Amino acid sequence: MFLTYLKRLVLASAILGSAAVFGQNAADVPSAAIAPASAGDLNLTPSALLARIEAQQRQIDDLKALVTKLENRLQGPPEPIASTRPMIPVARVTNFEGGGAPEPAPAPAPTPTVASAESYRNPRELLPDIGHIGAEIGLLVGGSTNPYKDNSGFATGGFIDLPWKNFRGGKLSYEIMIGLQQSTTTQTTTSGVNVLANAAVNAYLGNTAANSTNLAAFLAGPLPITSTVQENSKVLTVAPVLLKYAFTSLGRFRPYIVGGLGTYVWIGSDNNSQSFNANAALGSLANAPVGNSTLGATLNAILQGSQIGGLAPTAPELAARGVPHGQGNIQFGGQFGGGFEFRFTPKLSMGIDVRRNQVEGANASFTSFSFKQGLHW
Length: 377
Known about the structure:
Elements lengths: L1 H22 L22 H30 L60 E9 L8 E15 L2 E21 L1 H13 L10 H6 L5 E22 L5 E19 L6 H5 L6 E2 L2 E2 H9 L2 E3 L3 E2 L2 H6 L5 E19 L2 E12 L6 E11 L1
Helix pairs in contact: 1-2
């Protein structure tokens, strides 16, 4: 009985050992392999044979565990295998069949657009929502008050607007502005040169202060020393340091404020041609000979015309050559104001501009009101 059981155990061990070697890699086989049965195993003592059986039982248990592991691996999902071949997008291999070139995916159909106010989109630009790069040049045409109590007049000018940065929902720009305005005003001037001319005329005619009613009358006549004149004035405004902030968050409508420093040149002249006439003032004495001319004609040539400083006209020779004459000054001040513009297209805008010019000196400040047209790039 015992021998029969031993023979069966040895035979089972041999079968399991063969199966383990056949189904397992060399790395999974235990270090103590199952030895095949031999005739010498029958001569072992009972204790040695029992130890041999226990050792083989442990090996059988190890082999069962390995078989179970193999079965689990074979029944599980296959592991992904990494590949070094490049992947082709699905859209590129549509309708691709062995050997042919891949057919590109069709381009999406363009979406139709409807021209309306809502379809307006800000153009591409260096700074968002400003313009192509945010720069602008513009023309100003309108009117203005004028310094030194002159009448209002025509004004024109231009500007260039260079973007600096986006700031709190708007655009901060550097602006350079140049303007020119002119006016004609009726003023009254008193000429000290005419006073001296009266003294010379009275002396020539034999009238002296002694036989005149008084000295003031002697110096004030016969030529008028106070005349009504037409004052022609021009103001050149150069504002090279201006900062402009425009609100760009309102779409096409863009209000703005502007302020900075400016330089102002005023040029003016007073013309008494309509009010001064020596022939009328002298009466019959106007025909008194003076060299190759008459007294009235000589005085008109010297004292009638566009005065410099309200005193006397330029020399007749300079007037004949067309040399400009008048008086002027240069002043410093500040400019501030605001307005708005409406962007009709990405490159064209129109609006209104109002600026106050605070200039040094009495009665030197003035205000301009202009229609503006801007070109953006």
